[in-house]
Amino acid sequence: MSERVKKFKEERERLNEIVLARENLNIKRFFGLDSAVYRDGALDAKTKELLGLVASLVLRCDDCIAYHVIRAKELGIGDQEFDEVMSIGLVVGGSITIPHLRRAYRLWEEMKA
Amino acid sequence: MSERVKKFKEERERLNEIVLARENLNIKRFFGLDSAVYRDGALDAKTKELLGLVASLVLRCDDCIAYHVIRAKELGIGDQEFDEVMSIGLVVGGSITIPHLRRAYRLWEEMKA
Amino acid sequence: MSERVKKFKEERERLNEIVLARENLNIKRFFGLDSAVYRDGALDAKTKELLGLVASLVLRCDDCIAYHVIRAKELGIGDQEFDEVMSIGLVVGGSITIPHLRRAYRLWEEMKA
Amino acid sequence: MSERVKKFKEERERLNEIVLARENLNIKRFFGLDSAVYRDGALDAKTKELLGLVASLVLRCDDCIAYHVIRAKELGIGDQEFDEVMSIGLVVGGSITIPHLRRAYRLWEEMKA
Amino acid sequence: MSERVKKFKEERERLNEIVLARENLNIKRFFGLDSAVYRDGALDAKTKELLGLVASLVLRCDDCIAYHVIRAKELGIGDQEFDEVMSIGLVVGGSITIPHLRRAYRLWEEMKA
Amino acid sequence: MSERVKKFKEERERLNEIVLARENLNIKRFFGLDSAVYRDGALDAKTKELLGLVASLVLRCDDCIAYHVIRAKELGIGDQEFDEVMSIGLVVGGSITIPHLRRAYRLWEEMKA
């Protein structure tokens, strides 16, 4: 596991614990729903991960992109599939997504090393 | 074809003609690229359409959503697949997407009639 | 009830029925959560409505703004409170919110008539 | 003056009156500032109008775009200058701006007729 | 005062000085307006801070969120009130706000320590 | 050249290499188009850079802003022109752009040192 991925997962885990320690019912329900929509259904989890990835790219959320890039790699998405998701996000969202797309590719390549 | 779909396609066609009549090279190149990224590749056109749909929903662009809803139906996307794309877009983009999601479902149901 | 409010409520109701007729569990859960967060709690429903209103204004969602403007009036928000929410939304979101702010005021004034 | 421009200006005027009738100091100050930044300075009013236009396009605000398209025409912006602003907005903001770009061109062409 | 709050305030102060040293009238007027809208009025400063906080969360601006989180704590907002603002922002803005919500809670908890 | 500018350019270069090493045709075409729209035309490159800058500010993309601030300085934009672009972006995009505006000014002033 790359250093960046490890650090990302640890921080995410640590901050999630802070949020969930508040025991706020509505926030917990949202987090549950956020997991539920990516589970296998009529569309498989792999396709859903790509949907999450492209949505994160066009909304330009680095942490969300990193999360879905890692998940995409874990689910066996290939290089060309990744390129095509990035291309669609780039065309839909415009050049303003490029800084995020660059960091997505850096993470993607690091995970292959 | 539903009245709404027909009207949407006609207006889209008519306005595209106005834009492209300007013969601006960069705009033409963008339009070409916008078609290219949705063609069959490592991911099939159907999956790419769903990527375009979820990106349009989270960016809350009614015309873009309508375009991809129509294309999704033409490519044979089923009801449950559609629901799952809508669910991901809703969770990623929040309640602010709901007015767009409502209009997406209205169009989807009208195309089935 | 103003004509605009009546029409807004009817269309909203009609489209919600189309969405909920799909019986998609995750979408239903989201809709439930969307109601839950505005209920009286440590903050009263009135304050929460204003939070929903300012969020809708800065995100520039006309239907969301209309919904919260109507609710704000129903909950007894006064003119000056309304002005102050609009002012904060305008300063946070910039001149790009002005077309939405104009329509919010039109609806607000029509409801007083 | 095209019918669309006339209708746009009348509605804008009418709704501005509703907003300003409230005599809210902060909203008035914002409206004043919104006029001030487009006046001739180190950059001329024409260039500033183009800055307002491209900002409105990438933020996808139809009313803001229409306002700046009309102003750009009134200030003597030419077809090629207009094309180039549109191209930059399209590349920065992505395909999601296309529906707005189409309507901007429709208005632009109607004003030439 | 937590180390993070201290560092945030110092950087904010230092950069504001750079901006305001330019003596640009319109930017100064905007900064003045930005202070004015949060002052006690028909709504008290506390409620207005919460409006600023939720607007910042849905617009996903970390620095703006940090500023309003610190102000909310200084004005005596309680844990449950904070949770409810976060919940509304999360539902309105969707999962894309979660990385910002996590950092908001980290800051909130650090200020209690 | 300031340390920040140097570091920015190196990272940008390094990450662009990772992206372009993928040899993805559509991404390459987009990057080509992204260069093309800023070249001298009916509007000169200097004006186009300001269009890119204001678009980046209202979309709140730090890397995009930094890129255009550096380019604006290289093309000889003066202090007052820079102020006026910042003012328009601030008024259009609202207080939510302020953290980005602060960093833009810091970079601008560092380049003068």
From TrEMBL, chains A, B, C, D, E, F:
InterPro entries: AhpD-like (IPR029032), AhpD_core (IPR004675), CMD-like (IPR003779). GO terms for molecular function: peroxiredoxin activity. Pfam families: CMD. Residues 29-104 form the Carboxymuconolactone decarboxylase-like domain. PANTHER family: ALKYL HYDROPEROXIDE REDUCTASE AHPD, BLR3452 PROTEIN. This is Carboxymuconolactone decarboxylase family protein.
